[in-house]
Design brief:
240 residues; alpha+beta; 60s Ribosomal Protein L30, Chain: A; 2 domains; 5-stranded mixed beta sheet; 12% strand
């Protein structure tokens, strides 16, 4: 007579799900522990640039549409040297936290570059249309910049940029800003003057106009031109 096959007891089906959940939780907490002491300069080693996409024209509300060119987000560049200003590295971390809503909305970009900490403001969001006059959002952003960096000793350079659209000769706009040089210069100067009004010493600041000479994206598309219309507030490295 053959042996009767013994029945093998099976584990309840929920055990598998619970085991998977425990493994996921373990990985999550290990990741939190590993990243807890990561310095801000090393972030790019763990994560790629998170806001790869495009800054489009302002249709359907005050936000840049997703697309190939959007990068008005937080991107901290890898630097060639380990001694690249620890105070600026901390300032980047502070700026990313301070401007998190604007960064997520792709209205502000924060970068740590060779020249220093660069806070890029999309002109379409912070100036009145076709104007160098700050709007209320621009005023509020500059107030936060002042509160965050007023105690840093570093010099500050404000750089104005436009797209390559020619200001129509004889138009009302051309009476105020005959060229893109004039428009980019006036926007940079107005940012400087407001920061000075808030309390930053004029000895620390300078304003530079680049017009349309330094595009960061193509001027052949509306979203590329929107990207190029910007003001960059550069908190220079101390040696500068």
């Amino acid at each position: 007579m053959g042996r009767k096959k013994e029945k093998v007891a099976k584990a309840p089906s929920w055990i598998t799900t619970m085991s998977d959940l425990n493994n996921l939780l373990l990985c999550f907490f290990i990741l939190l522990y590993v990243l807890a002491d990561v310095e801000v300069e090393n972030i790019p080693r763990f994560f790629p640039s998170p806001f790869k996409g495009g800054m489009g024209p302002m249709t359907g509300g005050m936000s840049f549409e997703p697309g190939q060119l959007a990068e008005m987000g937080s991107r901290i560049e890898s630097l060639p040297s380990n001694e690249r200003g620890q105070s600026l590295a901390r300032a980047v971390e502070k700026a990313v936290s301070l401007f998190q809503p604007e960064i997520l909305a792709k209205k502000v970009k924060v970068q740590l570059e060779e020249r220093g900490l660069v806070i890029t403001l999309g002109s379409d969001f912070y100036f009145k249309p076709g104007s160098a006059e700050l709007n209320q959002d621009g005023i509020e952003v500059l107030q936060r910049i002042y509160k965050a960096f007023e105690l840093l000793p570093n010099k500050i350079r404000i750089e104005g940029h436009t797209d390559n659209t020619t200001i129509p000769f004889g138009s009302e706009l051309s009476k105020l800003y005959p060229t893109n040089w004039d428009l980019s210069a006036k926007r940079a100067i107005n940012v400087l003057l407001y920061l000075e009004f808030l309390g930053i010493s004029s000895n620390r600041m300078s304003a530079v106009a680049f017009g349309d000479t330094r595009p960061i994206e193509t001027n052949e598309t509306p979203e590329g031109r929107a990207y190029n219309r910007r003001v960059e507030i550069v908190i220079l490295r101390q040696e500068d």
